[in-house]
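pinging the channel bc i need a second pair of eyes. not urgent but kinda urgent?? the chain im working w is below, pasted from the shared doc
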Amino acid sequence: MGSFDEAWQVICDYFQNEKKITDVAYKTWMSRIQPVNIDFEKGEITLLVPNDFHRQTLLRCYMPMLNDAYTAVFGTSFETIFIVPDEVEKKENTKFLSDESSADAGYEFTFDTFIIGQSNKFAHAACLAVAQNPAGAYNPLFLYGNSGLGKTHLLYAIGNDIKNNYPDKKIIYIKGDDFTNELIESIKLATMSEFRQKFRQADVLLVDDVQFIGGKERTQEEFFHTFNTLYEAKKQIVLTSDRPPKEIKILEDRLRNRFESGLLADIQPPDLETRIAIIKRKSEILGMDLSDDICESIAQKLKTNIRQLEGVVKKLKARFYLTGETPSIATVSEAVSDILNNEAPPELTVEKIIEEVARTFGVEAEDIRSQKSRKANIKKPRQIAIFIVRELTSLSMEAIGKEFGDRHYSTIVYTVQKVEEDMKKDYKIKETIEDIIKNIRNR
């Protein structure tokens, strides 16, 4: 097998297609693994993970699944070596690495590999200006657009460019969710001083999917002070979101105002010519020689998501390595079908809804579910969770009651009616629920 990147994609497909893991667990733990190296002689696979907590969770909970995948894909077993970004930096002078980089992020997500079209040229120009003159061009820079249009690529490109031109600058990349998770962990471990020092001493702060901090009071408080500290110290801040600040309804006004104080740049879906150019560039990077007909066929079938375009090319490359089959119109159709099936909106489960409500209100998901929990701060999140489950699933009132600690269906009926009344009286509750639903659907 010629490329561990493509092989790793096959492993990811194995997890998803064989349903060895829930969608939530896959997105939380498996999708954020970056393949680094495979050594057949030593029988070792090296994987990059975001942090030590992620590493320990994989070692504790997911090794049997990984070992099964190795056997299914390679026909043999491997010893897994997990490394984290800090260890990479200590071992070698690498390019900028992030905790959410894809299989080839370290070298692929640069300005050179970003295809410029009418839909993204303004955002590209803004990001290039920021990379060339950190905190001197646009600060903060806020990129927004639907998932899969290149926001993360540009974020990495900024990091890579600054790392190359200003090697002494401290660059921190983090997702909005992970900022919350690290904050919660720091509170539990009484290490808030270290948490604040980590982020507030950065020269460049890159935050992906910042919309997910909305509604979380303690997270917004910490992020507000972090933002102010960096901004006043003339440090560069770049944020991405799936929507502009004014549409993040549960974002505090003081944060919304700061996000809007710099430059806002949106990214739209690419036109046909840009999509074809993206496919050709991706195939060149992967050492593939795709004909014009095949490139156009892919571009005609996938129109709104760059990640899907690249996913088809990766899948064709993996298929070639595994079977030796040369890409054709027929294999393109199969690959596109696989990509669309894999990336179809996942079924909305009670578990996903409760997890998002819990994240929004900073409470434990178990407390929301439990009949026994009488904590004062649980009542409102539980009511909202019940209401959203009723809105987004086809479960009956009786079935919803069973999901929430075997509550009687009449309690569920009353709760739904109560939330409906609250939404009419209080627009903030209505906006909070609307944003939670939007976040659930975008995950």
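so Residues 1-91 form a domain with the GMP Synthetase; Chain A, domain 3 fold (CATH 3.30.300.180). and The chain has four domains: 1-91, 105-266, 270-344, 350-442. — does that match what u expected or am i reading it wrong
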